[in-house]
Amino acid sequence: MMKKRLFRAWEKIIGEERDGIVPLLPLALLILLSWVYGLCVRARLWMHRRGLLRAGRIDAVVMSVGNLTLGGTGKTPFVIYLARRLRERGIPVAIIAQGYGRKAAAGLLVSEGGGPLVSAEEVGDEAYLFAERLPDIPVLVSRDRVRVGTLAVSRFGSRVIILDDAFQCLGVRREVDLVLVDATRRLRTDRLFPAGYLREPAGGIARASAVVVTRVDESDRDWEKELVSMDAVRTLPIDPVECRFRPMWLFQLLAGERRSLEWLRGRPVIALSGIGNPASFERTLCGLGAEVVSSLRYPDHWWYRARDLEEAQQRAAAAGAQAVITTEKDAVRIAAAGIDDVMGGRDPAGTKAPVLVLVVELEVARGEEGLWGLIDGALADRGVLVKA
């Protein structure tokens, strides 16, 4: 539980709700560390610009999906959206993920295009979810993306390679570089890690082919004004693409029973998540009419244990909650724990709250034509599409 406590303490320190002078002291230390981190990041970027660090090439159209912050922008559903659209057009595509949080160090073939071949713990929650949601698309994990990308081309005939979470992975040349920005979070005024959420200075957005703004329907900030005020954004070839996440249905973990979203209306529930933006998940539940009586937040990519689920069940019993609601990525990690009894899998008396999973799909609200015009141009340049 130490990691969980440190995570909560860190979020409180860098957040905007600090009380008194004392919390400013650790914040000052984090700011000093962020300067050191920033020097390292800028040095690496400079070496790539000067050619001191070289980028490898994959013989395919390479599309990178990434972000400037520490996660929570919605990369996973966006990658699923891209891969599915390309596959529907008959274009052979493969996904390469880093496999953050995985327990196997070596690169692995997650799916040959027929569902997962390995466990979620071996490859990480995101790669496993790709293999589940996109059973007809090869999925691989490795830090050496050039090597496994070349493997995907030779073994599966992939014409397009999607690199998940690769905006900072400058060791691979790419034709399309998409950076995701969460409309509910500040970008220009955020600080570098560990004093903030930024992986690199916000000006790095200039390397992108396009900016994709997610959760536009949830934001009460003028995110559009903030983005347009950045010189790097104004010089991009297309306007920012606007997206939202549309809840689709619920299903019960283990049992697989599907329920409509109407089931949530007026019901007290526990929100359980270990993702980059838990607040967005909880807002979605409230927007669907659920009464979130308690929320349990764990660090991103958290691998659940029996006591975590026991705490959720205890809170549900104390608050009279009728279900524990979680996300698809969390469901992968909960199921991997193999603790059926805690989740109500072996509960004939029905005394435990069922664990329900909220399924969402990405929906482009504005700018889809420009996005696919950009992608089609890259595909045509490499001979994957015939120019009109």
From TrEMBL:
**Enzyme Commission number(s):** 2.7.1.130
Substrates-to-products reaction catalysed: a lipid A disaccharide + ATP = a lipid IVA + ADP + H(+)
Enzyme class (EC, first level): transferase
Keywords noted in UniProt: ATP-binding, Kinase, Lipid A biosynthesis, Lipid biosynthesis, Lipid metabolism, Membrane, Nucleotide-binding, Transferase, Transmembrane, Transmembrane helix
| GO CC, any one term | plasma membrane
* SUPFAM superfamilies in UniProt: P-loop containing nucleoside triphosphate hydrolases (SSF52540)
Q: Which GO terms describe its molecular function?
A: ATP binding; lipid-A 4'-kinase activity
Q: Name one Pfam family in it.
A: LpxK
Q: At the top level of its lineage, which domain of life is listed?
A: Bacteria
Q: Which GO terms of type biological process are on file? A: lipid A biosynthetic process; lipopolysaccharide core region biosynthetic process
Membrane-spanning ranges: 20-40
Query: What is its pathway?
Result: Glycolipid biosynthesis; lipid IV(A) biosynthesis; lipid IV(A) from (3R)-3-hydroxytetradecanoyl-[acyl-carrier-protein] and UDP-N-acetyl-alpha-D-glucosamine: step 6/6
Residues that, per the record, bind ATP: 69-76
User: Could you tell me what this protein does?
Assistant: Transfers the gamma-phosphate of ATP to the 4'-position of a tetraacyldisaccharide 1-phosphate intermediate (termed DS-1-P) to form tetraacyldisaccharide 1,4'-bis-phosphate (lipid IVA).
Provide the family line.
Answer: Belongs to the LpxK family.
PANTHER family from the UniProt entry: TETRAACYLDISACCHARIDE 4'-KINASE (PTHR42724), TETRAACYLDISACCHARIDE 4'-KINASE, MITOCHONDRIAL-RELATED (PTHR42724:SF1)
**Protein name, please?**
Tetraacyldisaccharide 4'-kinase
Species = candidate division TA06 bacterium DG_24
